[in-house]
Amino acid sequence: MKTFVWVFASTIGLSSPIVATAAPGAAAAALYGSVCSACHGSIFAGGSRGPALKGPSFVAHWKGKSAYDLYSLILLTMPSDNPGIVNEKEAVGLVEEIFKQNGLKGSLKHVKSAEDLKSIPIPK
Ligand code: HEC
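That is the input. Now the predicted structure with heme C docked in place:
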């Protein structure tokens, strides 16, 4: 059991430096692919274990909330089987990625930190 836990932890440890040194957009896409796509699908369209993160019903669900609400949900509750593994910077990147997938990316042009997300409504 000890060995298993160690191997598991070092696998996770190995993947984070790679994510951290890549360009922000690429890092978020890579993180999505390695962690989120298992449930939300490789093209954000949803799967048997998680809802779609793009499309009219997703946007309608989030309309009127802020990008920060989306950020908080990801930071605090995702991945649902292991919440807490996504750090703040990564969560901002994932919000950007979800905005991009939904054609909303323009609104995030000046985002430097999670605080900036508070003033960004989810449009449409
Ligand atoms: C083990 C499966 C699983 C993984 C992995 C996972 N999610 Fe989820 N996610 C879910 C489920 C299930 C829900 C729906 C929860 C609910 O409705 O209460 C959800 C909901 C969401 C929502 C809200 C969707 C909506 O329409 O309100 C977002 C955003 C989200 N996940 C993002 C992510 C991101 C980003 C990652 C990767 C860091 C991730 N999830 C990883 C299962 C998962």
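Helices lie at 2-21, 24-40, 56-62, 67-77, 88-101.
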